[in-house]
Design a protein that fits this description.
Length: 352
């Protein structure tokens, strides 16, 4: 007996832009609210249940929704919320029943159609999924997730031309969104269109270099693990410091190498200088990037002096703060580098 995939895995696998099952059920969309029927006020229990579901506490939300539905079995919003709570707790059958009943009572609920579409995708019922997302599009034609969701289904239906048209429209509406490009690239990667995936991911990285690190850790891109263009994209730091941004560069005797000694010196110096440092960093061929208020790149060829490049947007701090902080940090890096050098075995001079 096979079991349906978890909805968390589903949302990850198809890289749909909307929250779908995992997103908490919303009130009817703006388009739906303009319909002739009046929107009923939200009961206190339903409002509280919504908060709990949004906080990932679906188990606590279920008794509140059960109580509401015992008193008013035809409350479509409560049914939609309970379906979401049931999905999150693994009760797929109960969640589907609540979802179908909620839609039967009030088909104006856009989130319900999105959730229905995600369920159909899990069962590989692509035609039904497409119809569900189309219903969502009718309720809010301007919603940007229409194109990414419908494009994803078309891709799974092997309609590359139709999917690409949807994706182009999605990206044209937000050409400078790294997240939008990343989602499209993820869909292409999952469907096996490597060249399109890399091309779109490259644009996401141009907008926000951190999407490169995100792709490294995203199983959606595992299909590209042997693709040369993809591997080159991950290995290359293509970031260009914007004109007018703060920037400074220093070379230190300690080399950048696989043992990470220069990187260690930089990390210790950042702590000593009180500089913020995010817990994640990224490494490629001969470089490592650390992020905080400052972008710090540590690089260099093996067995040669290493380079530390520090930059930041001008709007992040005043020129005086930049000067004070970088001078303090550079001195600290020099000090930590010297300490580490003293612990290294000294090379003996060659015999004459």
């Amino acid at each position: 007996m096979t079991h349906p995939p978890s909805l968390r895995a589903l949302a990850l696998h198809f890289a749909l832009a909307s929250a779908l099952i995992l997103g908490f059920a919303t009130l009817p969309s703006a388009a739906a609210q303009k319909a002739p029927q009046a929107v009923k006020p939200v009961a206190p229990n339903v409002a509280r249940a919504r908060e709990l579901i949004d906080a990932g506490k679906a188990v606590q939300a279920l008794p509140l929704l059960d109580q509401t539905l015992a008193a008013t079995p035809s409350d479509a919003q409560a049914l939609l919320l309970r379906s979401t709570a049931r999905f999150q707790t693994g009760d797929l059958e109960g969640g589907r029943k609540d979802l179908e009943r909620s839609l039967a009572l009030d088909p104006r609920q856009r989130q319900a159609w999105l959730n229905r579409g995600a369920l159909d995708l899990a069962e590989k019922r692509y035609d039904r999924a497409f119809e569900a997302f189309q219903e969502g599009e009718k309720l809010d034609p301007a919603a940007p997730d229409n194109d990414i969701n419908l494009g994803a289904v078309l891709l799974l239906k092997s309609d590359l031309q139709g999917a690409s048209a949807r994706f182009r429209r999605y990206l044209s509406a937000q050409p400078n969104s790294a997240e939008a490009h990343y989602l499209v690239a993820s869909n292409y990667a999952l469907a096996g269109y490597a060249a399109l995936a890399v091309e779109t991911l490259r644009r996401a990285v141009e907008i926000d270099e951190r999407t490169r690190l995100r792709a490294r850790n995203d199983p959606n891109f595992s299909t590209l693990d042997e693709n040369r263009a993809y591997l080159d994209l991950l290995a290359t730091d293509s970031y260009q410091i914007p004109p007018g941004a703060y920037a400074v560069r220093r070379t230190y005797p300690l080399p950048y190498s696989e043992d990470g000694r220069l990187l260690q010196a930089v990390v210790l110096a950042m702590r000593a200088a009180g500089e913020k440092m995010e817990p994640t960093f990224e490494s490629g061929r001969g470089w490592t990037i650390l992020w905080g208020d400052l972008r710090i790149k540590v690089s260099g060829p093996p067995d040669q002096p290493g380079t530390v490049e520090i930059s930041a947007p001008v709007e992040r701090m005043s020129a005086a703060d930049w000067k004070r902080r970088t001078e303090k940090l550079l001195v600290a890096i020099g000090g930590e580098s010297e300490k580490i050098q003293k612990t290294l075995p000294q090379k003996r001079p060659a015999k004459p």
